[in-house]
Every structure is written in C-alpha cells, then in structure tokens.
C-alpha cells in the first residue's frame, strides 16, 4: 500500500529499439557510405525519430507506411519463399548485423495479457481521531481514509461475474485502522480500461495471512467481471526461475492507474525481515524474489510475470533509501498459489485464517553449490536439505531422523523434487490434518520412503 515504507509499486517503462546499422544501407547510393540507414532515410525526406522510422518500415497493412520505405519490405515479402517471413527476417536479410529487440517484443506480448489479469484495489479504513474544544474537553470522532494497491485475477467465471482476486494482506489491512481492528471497511476493485467510479466493483475478504502477506478477495455477480476480455492468471513455477531472467511487473503505482515495468530477476530466493502489517511492530521474515524492475508505492499486490506471461510472484516490498536504487521484492508463486488454495479450502466466511498441519520437523541446508543446467539454460543453485531435529510431539517422531537427506516430497498425488530448502517449507503450506505426506530420504547412503500422517493443525495469522 501507498502508506507503507516497504511496499510495492510500478511505472510504465517504454522500451525503444535502438539499432546500429554501421555502413550497411537500405536506401541511398554509394555516395552515402558511412551514413546509417536512418540518416539516409532523413536525407530522402523522412521526418521523425529513428524509432519512428523503424516502425514506419512495418507500416499498417502497408497503408500508413512512409513512401519509398515500406515498399521495400512489401516487395521483399512478395518474393517467392518470403511470404511467411517476418520484419526481423527482412531486416537481417539487408543488415547482417541487425539484432532484434526480442525481450522487448516478448514482454510487450506479456503485458497485453497481464494487464487484463490485473485489478486496481482501493481499501477504505476508519480510525478514531481525538480532538479538544476551547475548554480542553476531549472528544472522539471517526475519520475515513483510503489506501491503494493492486491484485491479480486468480479465478474467473465470466458467465456469473464471479471472481477471486489475490492481493497483499497489507493492501486490505492497516494497523492504524482502530475502528475496524485493522480490516478495511470497504474494498473496491477496478479492471484495466475501466478505472473509473462508474465501474467500481465491491469485494469482500475471503481470508488473509500477515505471515505470508497474502489476502484473497471475492467478487460475486459483477457485470464488469462478465467481460470476455478479462482473464485469470496462469500460475508459473517460481522454483524454475533464475537470476537474469526477464520479468514484467504490473500494478497500480502511486495510485495513478494500472501500468507495467520491466526488469530482471536479481536473486531467485532470499529472506527479508519487515514489520508485520498486522501491528507494524512485530518482525516477520518473508521469502522473496529480488527484482530490479521499477516499482512505486501503490503497486502492492500486483503480479510478477515471466517471459511466458505466467504469474511467478506477487510484488510486496521495496527498499526505500537514498543509497539504494531499484531493489524490490515479490512473494514467489509457489507460496502464493499454496496460500491461495489453503484460504479457499479453509476459510468459510467466519473463519478467515490459513490453517496448516503441524509437522514438528526442522530442516536445514547441509551443503550447497551452483551449476549450469543445460536443459533450463540457466545457472542454478542446488542445496542438500537434511533433517535438523524432530520434536517429541511430531507425527514424524520415530520416522524421520536427524541427518536424513530429503530428496522428494509426495503429497496428494503431487511429487516435489527437493533441491532447495524452500521446496520443503513452501510445501508445508499445503499440509492438512489427517493427510499423509511421503518423504523420500537418504539415510546412511540408502534411499528410503517415509510416510507421515499429520495428526494436528493450527491457524496461521
């Protein structure tokens, strides 16, 4: 939210394709040697920037292209064998050194869909205000105020106009709102292209957790959400991301409306400690993805998307300091999706908290190293995860042992290969009382499968 010192945000980043043409030419004669193709185009009467000139080469079905420029592309396309080739193919044929801005193109496509999965969230809170009259008599009154953030559409039924929205806990909770004990009195959401009061849609909180800074909102019977253009996000696998991967962040920066910024992943997984949005006093440790995309206040709850347009995180914080530039954070999708499903399963209108089974086992990293994964084309980190301790009350007592190396977890038909400690801790969010978890372990150099039936659970704030 905009008021929080460590919060998420984002502004639109316009990507401009800049190409160095060297001595190669598309237009002109030998007397133009040494000039770029753009400079030659200017000599031939083109008026505009280099980026505009590049765009003019494509034209719009040939109708709005600059005379004498698009004709080259169109004529080339009409040649035998070139019918299905692209503008980039055309540029490479004339300019061997031409490098298309593929990342920009891909992220542009990601934005086209991500914007339609994003909502602006406006929460209204109330707090008591103390005032004194001329004689020093004290009185209390209620004061309303708002905070803005963003969210993503996690589930959508365009026939009924029903939807579930994922956002941050701190977007719909504020510790200063002592009238309603921190909970937003009302929540309005707006979809992209309809960010006006006439299209405001009321939302209610299904469930929320300050421990993971995630909240789920519900929309019912909304005409706005009956739009065929809106779409639910597709969850990606944040376990597969790596440093350097291109990302797009979409949100509501400075409460100015839904927009997007681009960047890369700086760190695929790390831990930061922030004050809890529940009381703004207690320290809470969050596992996050670090990114360098520009984010600003009001972006909290917005999505972090990979190059395939899949949701890999929910942006929730940034470092605000005159000594630091572009360090922001997002909650990984492996946590977000598990918390989302947990809330839908356990919150019923009265109960609004996450419920997790008690495993009573502590895990640790025994060793780690980096390597290049030729399949993923990524430099990865691998960790050996072992059992550090098992409590006497744990359902795993006598089954898992200190020093066991965890290699995989099987739960409800899903198998998770354990190569990082967070694979285990993220999976624990799914665990339910009465269910059985199977751990593949290596003990004394021998592979084993250990089944643990979960016998108790607890609510998570």
Write the layout of secondary structure elements.
Blueprint: H1 37-43, H2 50-58, H3 70-78, H4 87-94, H5 102-114, E1 118-132, E2 138-157, E3 162-167, H6 169-172, E4 186-191, E5 201-209, E6 214-219, E7 246-251, E8 259-275, E9 283-291, E10 303-305, E11 311-318, E12 328-332, H7 333-346, E13 354-357, E14 361-373, E15 378-390, E16 405-411, E17 414-417, H8 421-427, E18 436-443, E19 446-453, E20 457-460
Antiparallel strand pairs: 1-2, 1-4, 2-3, 3-6, 4-5, 5-6, 7-8, 7-10, 8-9, 9-12, 10-11, 11-12, 13-20, 14-15, 16-17, 16-18, 18-19
**Structural class estimated from helices and strands:** alpha+beta
The unreliable regions are 2-34, 60-70
Largest sheet, if any?
6 strands, antiparallel, barrel
| C-alpha end-to-end distance | 19 Å
Order of helices and strands: HHHHHEEEHEEEEEEEEEHEEEEEHEEE
Would you tell me the overall average pLDDT?
84
Shape: globular
Estimate what percentage of residues fall within beta strands: 35-45%
Q: Report the radius of gyration as a whole number of Å.
A: 27 Å
> Count of DSSP E strands?
20
Percentage of residues assigned to helices: 10-25%
User: How many helical elements?
Assistant: 8
Strand order of the largest sheet: 1-2-3-6-5-4
What keyword list fits this structure?
461 residues, alpha+beta, six-stranded antiparallel barrel, six-stranded antiparallel beta barrel
Characterize the structure shown.
It is globular and about 80 Å long. It is an alpha+beta fold and 461 residues long. The strands form 5 sheets. The protein has a 6-stranded antiparallel beta barrel. A 6-stranded antiparallel barrel has the order 7-8-9-12-11-10. Strand 2 (138-157) and strand 3 form a beta hairpin. The model is unreliable at 2-34 and 60-70 (pLDDT under 50). It has 8 helices and 20 strands.
């Amino acid at each position: 939210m905009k008021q929080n010192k460590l919060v998420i945000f984002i502004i639109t980043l316009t990507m401009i394709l800049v190409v160095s043409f060297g001595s190669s030419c598309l237009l002109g004669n030998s007397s133009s040697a040494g000039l770029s193709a753009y400079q030659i185009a200017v000599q031939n009467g083109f008026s505009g920037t280099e980026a505009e000139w590049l765009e003019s080469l494509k034209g719009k079905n040939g109708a709005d292209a600059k005379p004498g420029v698009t004709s080259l592309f169109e004529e080339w396309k009409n040649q035998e064998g070139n019918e299905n080739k692209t503008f980039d193919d055309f540029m490479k044929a004339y300019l061997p050194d031409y490098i298309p801005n593929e990342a920009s193109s891909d992220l542009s496509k990601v934005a086209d869909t991500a914007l339609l999965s994003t909502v602006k969230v406006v929460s209204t809170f109330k707090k008591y205000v103390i005032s004194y009259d001329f004689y020093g008599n004290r009185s209390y009154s209620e004061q309303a105020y708002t905070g803005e953030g963003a969210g993503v559409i996690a589930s959508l039924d365009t026939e009924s106009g029903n939807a579930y929205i994922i956002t941050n806990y701190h977007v719909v909770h504020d510790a200063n709102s002592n009238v309603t004990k921190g909970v937003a009195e009302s929540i309005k959401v707006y979809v992209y292209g309809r960010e006006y009061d006439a299209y405001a849609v009321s939302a209610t909180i299904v469930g929320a957790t300050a421990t993971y800074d995630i909240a789920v909102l519900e929309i019912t019977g909304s005409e706005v959400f009956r739009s065929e253009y809106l779409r639910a996000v597709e969850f990606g696998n944040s376990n597969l991301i790596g440093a350097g991967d291109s990302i797009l962040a979409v949100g509501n920066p400075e409460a100015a409306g839904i927009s997007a910024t681009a960047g890369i992943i700086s760190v695929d997984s790390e831990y930061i400690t922030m004050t809890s949005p529940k009381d703004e006093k207690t320290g809470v440790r969050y596992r996050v993805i670090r990114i360098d995309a520009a984010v600003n206040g009001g972006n909290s709850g917005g999505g972090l998307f990979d190059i395939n347009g899949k949701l890999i995180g929910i942006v929730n914080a940034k470092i605000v300091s005159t000594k630091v530039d572009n360090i922001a954070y997002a909650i990984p999708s492996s946590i977000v999706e598990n918390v989302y499903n947990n809330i839908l399963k356990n919150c019923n209108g009265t109960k609004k908290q996450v419920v997790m089974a008690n495993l009573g086992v502590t895990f640790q990293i025994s060793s780690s190293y980096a390597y290049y994964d030729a399949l993923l084309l990524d430099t990865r980190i691998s960790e050996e995860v072992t059992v550090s301790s098992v409590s006497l009350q744990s359902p795993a007592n006598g089954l898992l042992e200190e020093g066991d190396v965890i290699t995989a977890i099987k739960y409800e038909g899903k198998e998770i290969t354990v190569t990082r400690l967070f694979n285990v801790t993220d999976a624990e969010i799914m665990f339910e009382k009465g269910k059985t978890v199977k751990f593949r372990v290596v003990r004394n150099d021998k592979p084993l499968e250990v089944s643990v039936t979960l016998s108790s659970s607890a609510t998570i704030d």
